[in-house]
User: What shape does this take?
Amino acid sequence: MARRPYNPNSLATGIVGCHTRRTVLIMTSNDISTLLRNWPHEPGKLNVRIFEAEDGRECIQLRIELGVVQMELHGRPDGIEQEGCSSLLAMYESQGIGEGLSPNACRQLREEGVQRSHRAAALFALSRFEDVIRDCNRNLAIFDLCNTHALDEQDTIALEQFRPAVIALRTRASAEWAVSLENTTDAMASLDEGLEILVSLLGDEAEHSNEVQLLRGMKEALVPRLPTSERVDLQERLASAIANENYELAAILRDEIRLLRD
Assistant: This one.
């Protein structure tokens, strides 16, 4: 899908007051005092911008209280190649795992994932939703890699606590992207898919999940904007879900139909 300018009145993003802009930055000194004075830190806001480096590539800068964090837009956020590959994950995908992932290898993958999660949050604030989805998918690939190939049992589960949050962020980005393209139906379908995954993943804990509640809140904001024909489509999807014994999806669709009636 082609990107359109983000409409700040679309859905509540969960980002508290973001400030974004694009600039060309040329550094002539190691002293960044002028940069910091020209871009003051604003408490309570996510201050992030895209800028063009001297070689023309796009980078991301995040203003924090004590300075500026700079990240590459592609590959590893810190820009450090791993044996000729764009990231540690890409290296393992290219070269294979061998006998498994050692505790040190898992630690390095987790550190790469943390970098990517920071970039995903910045990209969300910049409305670069397709890039958010990319980073979420890459982090989920790290989770799967460690879960399947870690030699230490502790490393197989270390990242699983973060899986719901990454799934929720990916879902929000997909829904916001669809809304920015004025495609409410696709946005609702993205939220349904994300909720189905979370409910299946969390089981009885789903009702107490912040991620599930957040996505449901986004759905409620979208329902009044659905076209009339959507009611018929929902009824058909509900019947199909019940016939296929997909009761998690059926419960989600019933909630949608109830909201339409309200």
Observations:
- Residues 1-25 have pLDDT under 50 and may be disordered.
- The beta strands are 18-19, 22-24, 46-52, 58-64, 67-72.
- The chain is about 55% helix and 10% strand.
